[in-house]
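Worked Example 4.2. Consider the chain below.
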Amino acid sequence: MDLPQDPIINFGPEDLQGVVAPHNDALVVTTTISNYDGTRIFIDNKSFMSIFFKRTLDQMKVEGFEFEPVSTPLYGFAGQAIQPLGQIVLPLSVASDPRRVTKMITFAVVDTPSSYNGILGLAALKDFRAVASTCHQKLKFPVGKGVGVLCGDQKVARRF
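Applying the procedure from the previous section yields the following structure tokens:
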């Protein structure tokens, strides 16, 4: 199997510029999901599934989609089971031109309260071949022969 020849992705002192340290902030970013600026997207490299919350989907007024059924529940932090309404595939764009990348991402849709509009899990991070650093408050991913960067928003992360 031929693996992609991605550029080297690393984090250094220059990536700490603008980061308020010390911190324990979650990595919360803004992406574009189906032409909707999705603020408060939590990067969760411990969750396999990406999750979208029904209230956000309702706000987006996305039309012409159907949920695909999901038979297995999701388990939250306290071990409680949440049955998704279904799953949906939506275009998700990270960063801005000329380093903007868009992928079709599968989201489990849940009808439960959350501080976030969505959660990007491992499967989506793998699709983007992205590397997250909460310390540096950045998500980096290959774009051609270069590296794209999506910065976290500490102010938003600290509000919740």
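The CA atoms of residues 44 and 100 lie 21 Å apart. Helices lie at 54-60, 122-128, 154-159. Compare this with Example 4.1 before moving on.
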